[in-house]
Design brief:
AB_hydrolase_fold; Alpha/beta hydrolase; alpha/beta; about 325 residues; ten-stranded mixed beta sheet; single chain; globular; Rossmann fold; two-stranded antiparallel ribbon
């Protein structure tokens, strides 16, 4: 997923296990009269992008700090992340350690708190973010996945996520590159060839390009959060039915169905299913023709949904309540 550069960012580097890793920081101001640094959001780019591209793609470089949240955009190694294994050419590479040490570095620098931490990703970045949270490699409070779910190989290793976290997925069921119901990734044409070649170069083995279905993944997190069991029933033994609602959208926009698993005292798991929607960041650009990636919803505001979740969870973590946080579902 290619994108041009953002410009409201501070570049930075840290050394992790002898390897220099780079990132881009959008620093939120410290609240007036507060000694606490802002909460931290880590946003992971898709395959072939970099952190600056992710900042432009999402608008988070401007909107995150405006909402009181520091956002950092790490650069993957040569445009990729590594949920299964590291490339043989760079045996010391450790993406999860990079994210953990990056959070600590930003806390030490006074740019953000290392808890609560929120993790977001798009496409390939979403698959890696889910892997990190599922395996408990970073203690995230909220997980936000766009145009991607998680790898089946990661789910086989850890069937029930190790963390309890608020989770939101924003996925189109008309994405020609990503199977909503799960299965093998679709990599067609020249762009697909390049994605496949990059994945192999980053350590992907045959059969590892299989993803978990969106509704199945959301149910995993509902179980991890104590809303249901792995079998899909509540802790009292009744069948767990999520609340299903069609959100109001203007004429000509793809319909959006919200499927929400919730229970008092539990982190929620929410799926925003864009009916006929394609591969992109809703509210962001139609970066390729819809014939190639499907239509990108312009009215659903994925960045607003993400900041809504982070603001709400940060308030809960600090013992505060913030009314009216559902205001950003539409742009």
């Amino acid at each position: 997923m290619a994108a041009r550069r953002g410009n409201e960012l501070e570049p930075g580097q840290i050394e992790v296990a002898g390897i220099r890793r780079s990132f881009w920081l959008a620093r939120a101001p410290r609240p007036a009269g507060s000694r606490a640094a802002p909460p931290l959001l880590i946003a992971l780019h898709g395959s072939g992008m970099d952190g600056r591209g992710m900042a432009w793609f999402t608008g988070l470089a401007r909107r995150g700090p405006a909402a009181g949240i520091t956002v950092v955009f790490p650069d993957g190694w040569n445009g990729g992340w590594h949920p299964a294994r590291v490339p043989s050419a760079v045996p010391g590479l450790d993406d999860a350690r990079f994210l953990a040490e990056l959070a600590s570095h930003l806390e030490w620098a006074g740019a953000a708190r290392s808890w609560p931490v929120f993790l977001a990703g798009v496409s390939h970045g979403a698959r890696y973010a889910e892997h990190v949270a599922r395996h408990g490699l970073l203690p995230v409070t909220g997980l936000f996945l766009v145009a991607g779910t998680g790898l089946a190989v990661s789910r086989r290793q850890v069937p029930v996520p190790q963390l309890r976290a608020s989770v939101a997925l924003v996925v189109g069921n008309g994405d020609p590159t990503f199977p909503y119901q799960g299965g093998r990734l679709t990599r067609k044409g020249m762009s697909g060839f390049l994605l496949k070649r990059r994945a192999v170069r980053h350590g992907e083995l045959p059969g590892e390009d299989v993803v978990t279905g969106a509704e199945e993944l959301a149910a995993d997190w509902a179980a991890a959060n104590g809303i249901t069991t792995a079998a899909g029933v509540t802790v009292t033994g009744s069948f767990a039915r999520p609340a299903i609602e069609e959100l109001p959208m203007p004429a000509g926009e793809p319909p959006v169905t919200r499927i929400a698993w919730s229970r008092p005292g539990c982190h929620p798991a929410t799926l925003y299913r864009i009916e006929g929607g394609g591969h992109g960041w809703p509210g962001g650009p139609q970066y390729l023709p819809s014939q190639a990636i499907g239509p990108v919803s312009r009215h659903l505001d994925a960045t607003g949904l993400l900041l809504d979740m982070a603001t709400r969870e940060a308030a809960i973590a600090s013992g505060r309540t913030v009314p009216g946080l559902e205001r950003w579902e539409t742009a």
